[in-house]
Structure formats: structure tokens, C-alpha cells
């Protein structure tokens, strides 16, 4: 209803066309991306800051844009902009950065009256070799919130929101139990979290479903290991903040995961718009 396919296509097109690829080794490319993200946030009038840290002797940057800055309680909405190795990374994770930017655009446009602040955060260093270390941009950000005694409502992580299929039996699963509980056609999006924060997970899920633009599923795993914690939301759990991931099931569905075939042509921008619209509805109703 609200989101723009053209905006998101332009975002993904920019991110996937950068050479050399936007991985941790190519600092100039990462700077081009962070500058683009900052520019897009600034265009819509959101105040923007840079959060910098050192990893392996180099400096990396998170971009943070804030809405409703007079409020103390915060909702974090984030996505990572780096890519794994030498590939376009259209789904992983240009799709999510496009979703993040478009969500911010809609918020800025409609200016909802909320009793909490929203911080939109674009992270660097989610991918290997930094994944699951304290050098991840999301860990740096989550720790900064804890150090400042920030009251956090929760964290919503966009991670791979662009790959879908309407072909029957296009959705695979790692085990029969999951296969028996979830759809067999890969045309849905999933709210992924852990049971400790199931109240937050279910709230987001219910509000997303109310929009009724795409099938939204939810799964709360017993622990944060394995499939539950495969993106930036994991680092908010480390500080006892509710956090979840909105995800197209990643490598369980998308054969292009971490491959050179992860290109813009493989994405479904209509479905991406639906995901953003549903997430927006959840964000402004929490």
C-alpha cells in the first residue's frame, strides 16, 4: 500500500552494482554504500549519525538515523550492508537495506504519533570473518545501548527479504518437523526469534498479519543457536533486549545464498513491498 517498488529497486541496483564488491576488504566500496545510506536518510529529514569502530586494523561504520528523538524508549530497526566475498549480494543483503530505507521513508512521510523513538541502523561487518564476534556492527551498536542504559522496546532485523517462489514444493526444510508445521510453497516471510522473547515475536507477527499483504509465519526457537540467530538480532539478545529477524528463510529457500548468482533479477520486488508494508504496520502499533 505504502512502499515504492521503484525506490527499493534503485537501492538494490546501487548496492549490487558497486565494484569492487562491498565486502570487508574493500573499504572504498563500503564507504560508497554508507554514504549512499546516509544520503537517503538525510533526504527524508531524519537526523543521522555515524558509529565507528576498529576491526583488524581498519575502521568500519554503522549509519544510524533517528525518528521521534524526544522519546526515551527505543525501537531498533536494522539491516547489514556488507556482503560475503565477491558477489552482488542482492538478497543477502541489499534486499534488506532497501527494506530498511523504504521503511524509514514511509515513517518520515506519514510521521506517526508514537510514544517511542525509532533508530534505523545500517550495520557493517555482519558477514564472515566477523560473524558471531564482538566486531560485528550490530554488537557494537547493541553494546552502546546497554552502556548508555537505554530503554529498548525491541529490535527488528531485516535479513534477506527478496527471494520468493509460487511453485508448489519450492520451500525446503532442514527437518520433517518444520516441514509439517510450515508452508511448502516459498511465497511467505518469517518472523524468526527465540522463545525467551516470544511475546515480542508474536506481537510483531500478529501486527504484520493484520495487513494481509503476504503470508507471515512465525517461529520462536528454544535457543539462539543454529537457525535462530543467523543475523544481527543475535547481538541484542546478548544484552537481554527482545530481538527478531524478518527473513525469507535464507539458504533453506534461496539457492543463490552466498553465490555469484545472488543478483537483482532473482528478487521479487512486489513481495518485498508487501513485507515492508506489513513490517511498517507492526512498527507503528507496538
From TrEMBL:
GO terms for biological process: proteolysis. Coiled coil: none annotated. Residues 62-274 form the Peptidase M28 domain. GO terms for molecular function: metalloexopeptidase activity. Gene3D superfamilies: Zn peptidases (3.40.630.10). Pfam families: Peptidase_M28. InterPro entries: M28_fam (IPR045175), Peptidase_M28 (IPR007484). This is M28 family peptidase. It comes from Pedobacter changchengzhani.
Amino acid at each position: 500500500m505504502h512502499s515504492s517498488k521503484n525506490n527499493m529497486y534503485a537501492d538494490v541496483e546501487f548496492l549490487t552494482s558497486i565494484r569492487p564488491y562491498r565486502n570487508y576488504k574493500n573499504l572504498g566500496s563500503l564507504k560508497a554504500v554508507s554514504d549512499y545510506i546516509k544520503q537517503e536518510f538525510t533526504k527524508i529529514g531524519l537526523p543521522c549519525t555515524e558509529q565507528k569502530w576498529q576491526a583488524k586494523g581498519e575502521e568500519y561504520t554503522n549509519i544510524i538515523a533517528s525518528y521521534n528523538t524526544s522519546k526515551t524508549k527505543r525501537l531498533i530497526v536494522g539491516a547489514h550492508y556488507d556482503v560475503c566475498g565477491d558477489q552482488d549480494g542482492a538478497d543477502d543483503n541489499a534486499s534488506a537495506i532497501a527494506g530498511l530505507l523504504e521503511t524509514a521513508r514511509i515513517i518520515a512521510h506519514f510521521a506517526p504519533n508514537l510514544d517511542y523513538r525509532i533508530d534505523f541502523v545500517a550495520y557493517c561487518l555482519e558477514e564472515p570473518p566477523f560473524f558471531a564476534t564482538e566486531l560485528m556492527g550490530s554488537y557494537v551498536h547493541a553494546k552502546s545501548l546497554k552502556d548508555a542504559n537505554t530503554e529498548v522496546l525491541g529490535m527488528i532485523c531485516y535479513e534477506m527479504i527478496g527471494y520468493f517462489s509460487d511453485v508448489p514444493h519450492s520451500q525446503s526444510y532442514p527437518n520433517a518437523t518444520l516441514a509439517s508445521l510450515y508452508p511448502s510453497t516459498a511465497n511467505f516471510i518469517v518472523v524468526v526469534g527465540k522463545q525467551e522473547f516470544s511475546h515480542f515475536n508474536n506481537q510483531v507477527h500478529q501486527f504484520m498479519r493484520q495487513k494481509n499483504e503476504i503470508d507471515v509465519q512465525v517461529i520462536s526457537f528454544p535457543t539462539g543457536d543454529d537457525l535462530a540467530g543467523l543475523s544481527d538480532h543475535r547481538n541484542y539478545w546478548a544484552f537481554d533486549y527482545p530481538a527478531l529477524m524478518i527473513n525469507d528463510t535464507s539458504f533453506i529457500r534461496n539457492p543463490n545464498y552466498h553465490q555469484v548468482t545472488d543478483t537483482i533479477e532473482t528478487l521479487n520486488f512486489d513481495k518485498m513491498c508487501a513485507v515492508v508494508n506489513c513490517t511498517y504496520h507492526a512498527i507503528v502499533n507496538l
